Amino acid sequence: MLTSPPGDASAPAATTPVGGSVAAPAGVPMPTLTRPPAGVHGHPLWDSWHELGSFGYREDEYLVSGTARALDGTTAPYTTRIIVTRPRDERRSNGTVLLDWVNVTAQFDNAVDTLEARELLLREGWTYVHVSAQKAGLCCSPLTPQVWDPVRYAAIDHPGDEYAADIFSQVALALRAHQGLDPMRGLTVKRVIAAGQSQSADKLYGYVTQWQEQAQVIDGFLIHGNGTVRKTFPAPLGVPVLNLLSDREAEPAAPTTDPRYRLWEVAATAHSDFFIGVQSVEGNGPRVVDQPAADRARYAEVIDHAGNYGQVPDPLHATCTLAGATMPMHYATSAALHQLNRWVRTGKPPARTPRYRFDGAALAKDEHGNTLGGIRLPPVEVPVARYESTLCDLGGITVPFGDAELRSLYPTFDRYQRLMGRATDRAVRRGWLLPPDARDLMRRVCAVRPRYPAALRGTCRADSYDPPRFATR
Predict the structure, then answer these.
(1) Residue whose C-alpha is closest to residue 118's, from 170, 65, 162, 57
(2) Each residue of 124-140: pLDDT tens digit?
(3) All domains in the chain, ordered by first residue
(4) What single-letter DSSP state applies at residue 279?
(5) 75 Cβ neighbours under 8 A, 6+ residues apart
(6) 3-state helix, strand, coil in the chain (%, to 5)
(7) Buried (b) or exposed (e) across 376-397, using 16+ Cβ within 10 A?
(8) Of 12, 151, 224, 406, which sees the most CB atoms within 10 A?
């Protein structure tokens, strides 16, 4: 078995040795992996928008073929594709594989969680895998593989979404098994965690409740922004599930009390946000039209722009869904994955977190119009903007405070910086903000300094900021 024994809530998942293999669990056949041809473009659609070598990483695309089963027992042959982004060698790897069930709401693949958590994944040595589990991501809009490069992807054949869960299981098994064409190139696989956002989160909910008990090839789940079903599970969970929600998914109903479940509701966050939008426009966009992958310097520029939390007014703050809302869900996504990985590894769950506050069925708001309750990241505790998180349904906008309003709240930059430092420390101690992200946030705080008259600007202290110990319980 690849998961904890029944009833053992603390036992971590079993591991796979380097070069070893695992037997296919009942009902999960081993697929066949092949390499696609170079095709028209010479690179995969939705490969990394930036170079990976300087991070100690490499990327490979594979076609995955086999026979998949639907819930009713019918079977069908399939060929889909995956993109595996992994450390180059064992010393760089943390042994965890993240399978991103990519979102296809826009009728093309959108790897939301690997965009949100990109900095965490690279610095902690995760392998992350773009899994084209659903048919709509493969054909037939202009930004699907079979249309974008019909030569490279001629072999793709998806029988329909009723087979997607079993296809996903087979991909997980292929990453663990070290058989045939090994996508891990021999790297140790200790844990496989699945993530999906929005409609993909709904699909993962279905996977957890209908497939996980039999398949047992996945050790934990990040179910992020699920809209049609959320917070309740009809059977005891066999592996950890962390449910990450934005304001759009807020509801006052009580969540499951299963010990292997944790609910994170992140105040003032939007379903789709600025961090994803900027990477999509400035990163993925040029790559799709065959521009070279961005170098390390350009990567830093794009991430710097994407991480704006409203402290510097930007025209894209008003662009609903494309970019818009800037409350940094990417910090919470990174902390959630870090905590989930530790939970799977050690059996020790993260602490339970505060719930949203409600005014009837609606979210309660503070005097600035921002959400009350939930996980409170520093920009909502010490605000410089109003986060209209649900204005455009899937997205939102950010309304930065004017300079006069900013200075009425925080008469000097030093005052603002000091309050942000305290809020950042609290978030780290509570396990909501990772120390590297705390340093990144305090660096961004200094961008507010030019908004004050010279006599009130004080001194940027980002270089001397030292976060406290990160809480894991």
Answers:
(1) 57
(2) 999 999 999 999 999 99
(3) 32-229 (3.40.50), 274-464 (no CATH)
(4) I
(5) 67, 68, 69
(6) 35, 20, 45
(7) bbbbbbbbbbbbbbbebebbbb
(8) 224
